[in-house]
Amino acid sequence: MKVYNTLTRKLENFKSLKNKLITFYQCGPTVYWIQHIGNLRAAIWGDLIRRVFLYLGYQVNYVRNYTDVGHLTSDQDQGEDKMEKGAKREGLTPQQLAEKYIKIFEDDVKKLNCLKPTYKPQATEYINQMQQMIKILLDKGYAYITNLAVVYDVSKFPNYNKLNRQKLDFNKKGAGHGEFSDPEKKHFADFNLWVFKKGPHKNALQTWSSPWGEGFPGWHIECSVMAKELLGETIDLHMGGVEHISVHHTNEIAQSEAANNKPFVRYWLHNEHLLVNNKKMAKSEGAGLTLQQIVDKNFQPLTLRYFYLQAHYRSKQNFTWEALSASQEALTNLKNFYNQFFYQSKKLSKLSLKGKSYQKKFKQLISNDFQIPKALALAWQIIKSNLKPEEKIYLLNDFDKVFGLDLKPETIPQSVTKLAKQRLQLRKKQQFTQADKLRVKIEKLGYLIEDTPLGYQLKKK
């Protein structure tokens, strides 16, 4: 198994800390708004990567969190808390807002056929553990206290930029600009671990008491703590968007490794952005397409999942309505072929050598940094091959453990399938008039039969 590790910028042989057990943390959504289809692509890829490891025989402890406090609008230490801004917008409490958008997200990922994570923690459930880690960082000299916050001192952590590979001038002072700046910060890159209920955040809606003063946690400390509490001090995989490399994940490493004296993550995975009409998905509130908007245009949710399968997680993907329409047509054809093979198949005794070679190739592709698009192309090769229908069904079912397209036969009455088989025999004998009469009978029963180079397809009218 090979994975591309952002930390080393190399394709590496994967080896889990514990034999056949993988600890996997993915940065989940900040639940202040409906997640757009760019966010959903990230969720799908987390699910696909987990499915790959399950297919290969691993057990996966998978965490996808919910951020419900402390994520400021700048993604750093500038701006208002996104949850509080959303709560004011809708006249709700932050807790009510979180509940509302967690439910929508849960419904969306269920419709997209994502497996349930092992854990789905909310940041507000781990405040005590965050304070414990902050205390450790203060005691070790990695943090200091200003009038506005408990702050991490990045100059104290060797090789702070080992993930983002940025050059950092520790002589450069400053702490942002405008109303959210902190003049007492030592360095411009120092980041908040705990934010006091004063100054720009004096009216904060979500605060907790702490040894240093009432306030709320910084965004970065939340993921470090949830990963540690649920998966351990060192984890196998950590995934997030490429936008997290420069700040969020860099800060997670600094605080986790300083507090725990252990490597934090062994393999860092980062998914690229989804574009819409070759433009970046807008991050402003309410911008970006949602799954409901996709459904409102008469697309099935799994059509969107099929669309995602066609681009590698480390590649940008461009969404257009035309591309989604093509995906819907492809998925419909895939299900029709599946249905056709299912009703033509006999009991499978064993895979042929050719069938085994396809299965071997599939494992090779998904084991090479999750080459799902190439694996999907391989499925179409199988459909067009001269394998027996029962072998095609076996392999498509096998591959769908990773694809998650919920392939299953459409329920067609036995009387209809019997007529279809009789019609096929008549066509083989070139008795086309009699065969056409059976086609009419099938149509009267509410089904259409279509002849293809790969055999006939049955589907409801």
Strand percentage: 15-25%
Instruction: Give the biggest beta sheet.
Output: 4 strands, parallel
The dominant shape is elongated
Distance between the termini: 45 Å
DSSP helix fraction? 40-55%
Q: Would you list the SSEs in sequence order as H and E?
A: EEEHEHHHEEEEHEHEEEHHEHHHHHHEE
Any low-confidence stretches, pLDDT <50, length ≥5? none
Rounded to the nearest angstrom, the radius of gyration is: 26 Å
SS element count, helices: 14
How many strands in all? 15
Major sheet: arrangement of strands: 4-3-9-10
Q: SS-based structural class?
A: alpha/beta
What does this structure look like?
It is built from 14 helices and 15 strands. The protein is elongated and about 90 Å long. α4 packs across α6 and α13 (414-428) packs antiparallel against α14. It is of the alpha/beta class and 461 residues long.
Question: How would the blueprint of this fold be written?
Answer:
Elements: E1 2-5, E2 10-13, E3 21-26, H1 37-55, E4 59-64, H2 82-90, H3 94-111, H4 127-139, E5 143-145, E6 149-152, E7 191-196, E8 215-217, H5 219-231, E9 235-241, H6 248-260, E10 265-271, E11 274-276, E12 279-280, H7 291-296, H8 301-308, E13 317-319, H9 321-344, H10 353-366, H11 372-384, H12 389-403, H13 414-428, H14 432-444, E14 447-452, E15 455-460
Parallel strand pairs: 3-4, 3-9, 9-10, 11-13
Antiparallel strand pairs: 1-2, 5-6, 6-7, 7-8, 11-12, 14-15
Helix pairs in contact: 2-3, 4-5, 4-6, 5-6, 8-9, 9-12, 10-11, 10-12, 11-12, 13-14
